[in-house]
């Protein structure tokens, strides 16, 4: 019996194959969209997935301003920030955040589903979110996928 044929191979940065993927966020629920995009960024759909290596795809999210939230979250969900000074806490609900910076809502949801480490911050760099339907990544020939078919 040849034992060398049973060798397990692991993916590393040189052998990882990265695709470019476009996701249309129009009329998609924010949480479901974010979990699928986070799995694509991590590479969990690939057969050679390794949790300690950034082997995920480059993900482009378009129409981020047309994402849906269920229930009363548009008015009740709040994002908080703090200036660092006493009494410097600011809150803003989702409706106002979508008006000011619509890409923040999608980026924040996806960032929260990635690992909280150097590897997660490196994976987040492969995410590109745009409010409209146009993106400047046509040269990479991204393939459009339906998020519900994954």
* Alpha-carbon distance between the two ends: 39 Å
Counting DSSP H or I runs of 4 or more residues, the number of helices is 5
Number of strands: 6
Number of domains: 1
Structural class: alpha/beta
Rg computed from alpha carbons, rounded to a whole number of angstroms: 18 Å
Notable characteristics:
alpha/beta; Ribosomal Protein L13p, Chain: A; 4-stranded parallel beta sheet; two-stranded antiparallel sheet; 5 helices
Task: Provide structural commentary.
The chain has helices spanning 30-42, 73-76, 94-100, 102-111, 118-124; strands spanning 20-24, 58-62, 78-82, 89-93, 127-129, 143-145. By secondary structure, it is of the alpha/beta class. It has one domain: Ribosomal protein L13 (Ribosomal Protein L13p, Chain: A), CATH 3.90.1180. The strands form two sheets. A four-stranded parallel beta sheet has the order 5-2-1-6, with helices on one face. A two-stranded antiparallel sheet has the order 3-4. Helix 1 packs across helix 4 and helix 3 (94-100) crosses helix 4.
Give the SSE layout.
Blueprint: E1 20-24, H1 30-42, E2 58-62, H2 73-76, E3 78-82, E4 89-93, H3 94-100, H4 102-111, H5 118-124, E5 127-129, E6 143-145
Quick summary:
By secondary structure, the protein is an alpha/beta fold.
